[in-house]
Amino acid sequence: MAGWMLAAACACGTTEGVASAQQYLVGGSVAASSGVEGGGAQNALSRTRTRLRLGGDVRIDESPDDILEFAAIAEIEPRSGFGADVRYARAAGDHFVVDVGLLGIVAPASLYGVCTSLNYRLPISKRAQITVGPEADFFFLGSDLPDGTVLWQVRLQGGLRVDL
Amino acid sequence: MSTFDGTRVVCLGFALALGAAAGCGVASDCLRYSDCTAGLTCAYGHCVFPPGQDPGDGAAAEGATGEDSGLGSTGEASSPTPSPDDDASSQGGDAPAE
Question: Which residue of B has its CA nearest to A145?
Fold first, then answer.
């Protein structure tokens, strides 16, 4: 009986020790993007809506290259729209981050798809970086899409990221 | 790849995308329904009056202008499925049949 209690105490102590060693690293970012979009039966091209993205990211210090990103999105011109995205990002070297995720516009009409981007982070201080890079979005679901249309967008985004 | 090379590749790729948009492909008024003014719908890349709706009422009178209204530069309404009631007088001119 005493042996079981000792083993349980050791297990609890070990688990607690591992958990307390982990730290969540959180960042915040703001970015703007625009580019070209196309799709539909005629594969028509046009300038895409300018988008603002206000987001955050979280990672664990034991695995700092694996990042979970999330953001609120606002399309501001020439038409407005609001949505959100969630992405898995992976650091590729000291300054590059590549991500892939799900993106949705929910108002005034819905539009859902996938997104991927490559970001270059240019450090401007110990905790802040300028971010710039291309992004590709593909929308294939939602009430805002004409039937049978897949909308694609290629964007250039730029912004600021801060380690919180 | 150096920092300078990476930035240059990103800028070059974006410039090529913009050039492709400007010089290639088919120009469009809309790719999404919400690209069009209220009362119009997106069909084949253009904002048009919904099938069966008289272009003379509703959307055009609500302030729809230019490409968003489905009205071309010549004032012609884009209507891929004109109703039997459509005639030259109801659209302020000759109606194109697309």
Answer: B32
